[in-house]
Each structure stands twice: as structure tokens, then as C-alpha cells.
Design goal:
The chain is α+β, with helices and mostly antiparallel strands. It folds into three domains: 2-89 and 114-186, Cytochrome Bc1 Complex, Chain D, domain 2 (Orthogonal Bundle); 192-359, Cytochrome c-like domain (Cytochrome Bc1 Complex, Chain D, domain 2, Orthogonal Bundle), CATH 1.10.760; 379-463, Immunoglobulin-like (Sandwich). Helix content is 29%, strand content 14%. It has 14 helices and eleven strands. It has helices spanning 2-22, 26-36, 48-51, 116-119, 135-144, 148-155, 159-164, 166-180, 192-197, 205-215, 274-278, 310-319, 346-356, 367-378; strands at residues 95-97, 102-104, 242-243, 287-288, 382-383, 394-401, 405-413, 418-427, 430-437, 444-452, 455-463. The strands form four sheets. It has a four-stranded antiparallel beta sheet with strand order 8-7-10-11, with no helix packed on it. A hairpin with a 4-residue loop joins strand 7 (405-413) and strand 8. The structure holds heme C (2 copies).
Length: 465
Amino acid sequence: MLQKTVMILIAVALVSAAAESSAMTPLEELGEFLYFDETLSEPNGQSCASCHMPSAFFVDPDSDAPVSQGVLPKGRWGNRNSPMSAYAFLSPDFHYDPVEELYVGGQFWDGRAANVVEQAKGPFLNLLEMNNPNKRTVIEDILRGGYADLFIEVFGHDALYIRRNIDEAYDFVAEAIGAFESTDLFAPFDSKYDYFLQGYDVLTEQELSGLELYEGKAMCNACHPSEPGPGGEPPLFTDFTYDNLGVPRNPDNPFYTLTKKFNPDGYDFVDLGLGGILGIEEEMGKHKVMPLRNIAMTGPYMHNGIFKTLKEVVEFYNARDLGGFPPPEVPINVNTDELGDLGLTSDEIDDLVAFLHTLTDGYQLSAGAKRMAAAHTASGYALSSNYPNPFNPITSIEYSLPTTANVKLEIFNVLGQKVTTLVDGEQNAGHYSVSWDASNASTGIYFYRLSSAGFTETRKMILLK
Ligand code: HEC
Ligand code: HEC
């Protein structure tokens, strides 16, 4: 417990450091307070960060249990494994894609919340998590707390108004948390693999072999795409769809032991995933394809935390259909096309796992790689960070050219679709500043790419309306 407290303090310190450098808006800053506030549970002691701690790669730091414990420790366990809260905001809103005939996007393993703002309304009132009896207790705690003034300032209503309009106030809370969860902190894109894609670092032979298997024989990128987008945007390792992989029940899930009040089915409980939410038979047993960023750090794995190591996960994909694994938790709609009998050797399994380890954020470039990056800069080309960032609706982008060159400066959205071309043509050597007016674009992350013969660089920016 002490250890946990220390980790929270470190997490807040790290977040504050990050906050200073990227200048958060008051709304995001408010979201940060709410996200870390352990007085917003009943009793006190649990915050969003308890189960999605930035220093633990945005999951529950207790990786021994397959699922997370609520604030009332006496046997109150949730039924599912905590996913990362990082990168979650990049999932599109939950919707049905009529062309692909698939459900896409949303939050939670079963997609029951449309986006991170809607998601944030859940945990405070979940009796197996933060356990507040109603929205009012959450709002009262906030109004009694140290950042009540900021809450009032951001939303422009006095405390009395807020107390009278509890539903609206509760929506404000979710809005602020969603804004905080959409900051750079939640999308660092600084893994070894990112540096590799940008040409700043190399993968080892084993990691390269793993990447080749990932995109080839093992078919992982059929659902967890690993290629950068057309504008060089970093991959998210999920196509945001839903699938039943035939994951077996996890007999060690403590949720089975809960009283009838919380788990009426006892040991017969079956997690129906998306189908349970929609009541559609074809979707029964399907869970969301999760992003694989930080995956080496975020075990246990799968919706019920059944696998403790990445090796077990890959062995399951490799040999599900060869006996040796218990039957699927939900026997219908099981995917038999892309997994189950991949024919990977044990060396290949190790290579694949080695590749998955390159997806961990916070990677420190080696001295050699730093030299590569420096050489890149010494070429005389340079693309600076846009300013301001986040912005609304105008930001400026500066770059330098060492010689006369044909240059393109283009903007892409997270789906890799080109939004606009700001520069396209020959320019003389020199320093340039171009501004982008994003009045017609919607809130989100965008990427700007400067390209010329022998030089390409992509950077990200955030439009916040
Ligand atoms: C007791 C642990 C716990 C607490 C506290 C908690 N969460 Fe979660 N979180 C989970 C679990 C478990 C899931 C998956 C639940 C499911 O799919 O049914 C989840 C899912 C999520 C997701 C969806 C991620 C995705 O990719 O689908 C986000 C975002 C998230 N939580 C953010 C938050 C925020 C914000 C708070 C505070 C308001 C919070 N969580 C509090 C355990 C927790
Ligand atoms: C057919 C689509 C599909 C393919 C192919 C696929 N996955 Fe997945 N992956 C999923 C889905 C869906 C889940 C969540 C399943 C669940 O929990 O029931 C998942 C979950 C995972 C998880 C656990 C995520 C977490 O947060 O706990 C890992 C790790 C993983 N996949 C790795 C891989 C690897 C490695 C490969 C290639 C060998 C692969 N996947 C191939 C769809 C796929």
C-alpha cells in the first residue's frame, strides 16, 4: 500500500513536469486534478490513476491479479482486466460501419461507452470500482476539495448553480477528464519502434525477424496494424474492431466469487462482450482489439487477464486449435481464419515477443542513435514544433531548407487522410514560417509532414476546439 502511495506521488510529479512543458489548458489541468484525486471514491482511496497509473504504463500497477479491485477491498473485484487509458482517446466513437459490416471504435472491452468522455462517467458510480452512491457525492467532494475554484472558473458557474444542476456538473467532470486524457501525455509515441520508423534507430536482427513474422506468417497486423499511415503517422496497433478469439474462461478470475448482488450467475458467469451490450447473437463473445503499444509492460492479457506473459499470448494464437487449451468461453463466432494454428517455431515465438518489446514508450535512444538523429539535423533541414500547440484554430509551422529544393508540407489526420497541403513547390534555401488555419477541421491530433528529396519528417499537433 505504501508503495502504491509513493508511485502515485511520483506519477503526479511526472505528470506535472509533462504539464509544464506542454502548457495545458485550464480544462485539461482540471481533468488532471480529477484523474488523480483519491477523495472522489467512497470511501476515499481510489482515483482513475489507481487502475490506470501513468508510471505503470496507464494500467493497474498490481499485475498479479487478472482484474482490478474496487475501493472496498473486501472481495469487490471487477470482472475485467484494466486496459491502458493511454491512446484510448484515439479510438473513433463507437459506430457501425455499413461498408465493412462491422462495429468499430468505442471504449471498454465491449464498446459500451462511445468515447473517453462518456467512459469517464462510469467508474465513479461503479460499485466494483469507485463506489459512489450517486453523482452528488462526487460533485460535493470536488466542491470541498482544493481545486474547486478551478472547476468553477473553467465552467463559469458558481458553486450554488453547480449543486443545483448535478447532472450537468457531472458531465463537466467527464468533459475535463476526457480533455486531460487527450493530451500528449496519453500519446507519447516514443517507443523504439517509433524511432525505428523515423529512421533514428535500428532494430536488432531478432526484433526485425519478429516484425516480419508480425506482418507475415503470424498475421498479427490483420487486426493490430503496425504500418505507419500515408503521412507517416505512427501506427496504433488496433483497427478498433471486435473479435471472438476463443479466449478460454479464466478460472482464477475473482469476480466468480462475488455475492449474488454483484454476480448473479456465480461460477456460471459468461462474458459476452460486445454481443452482451447489443443483444445481437453474431456479436456474442467479441471483445475490442486492443492497441499493443506498451504491451510488454501491461500484463496480464486479454479481457479476463487469463495470460500472464506475452509468450503465453503468442502460444495461444499459434496453437489454439491443436488441443492443449481449454475450450472458448463463448463457443460461437470464434475467429478461425487468422489464428489457431500458425505453425510458428519456438524461436519464431521468441522473435515475435522480442518485437513486441519494442513498442514500449519512453525509449531512450542509444548514443549511436542520437548521432544518427544529429546527422539528420546537420543535413540542414529542420522542421520545428508548431506554435502554439495545442491550438485553436491557427498555428504556425517553421522549417529550414539548406539548399533550393522542391518541398511539400502536408497535414494528415490520425486516420492518415490528407487534410490539406500547405506548401508544394520549389523554394530557396532559408527559414520559412507557414500558418495553418484549422477553422474547418475538428478537434483531434494532426500530423504535419515536411518532405523533400532525401528528407522527410513528421510531427504531431493537437487542435482543441
Ligand atoms: C478499479 C479499477 C479502475 C478504476 C478506479 C478506473 N478504471 Fe478505467 N477501466 C478499468 C477496467 C477494468 C476497464 C475495462 C472495463 C470493461 O471493459 O468493462 C477500464 C476501462 C477504461 C477505459 C477504456 C479503455 C479502452 O481502451 O477501452 C478508459 C479510457 C478508462 N478506463 C479510464 C478511466 C477513468 C478516466 C477513470 C476515473 C474516472 C477510471 N478509468 C477508473 C479499471 C478501472
Ligand atoms: C482476428 C483479429 C486478431 C488477430 C489476427 C490478432 N489479434 Fe490480438 N487481439 C484481438 C482481440 C479481439 C483481442 C482482445 C481479445 C479478448 O480479450 O478476448 C486481442 C488481444 C491481444 C493482446 C492482449 C491485449 C491486452 O491489452 O490485454 C495481445 C498481447 C495481442 N492481442 C497480441 C497479438 C499478436 C502478437 C498477434 C499475432 C500473433 C495478434 N494479437 C493477432 C484481435 C486479434
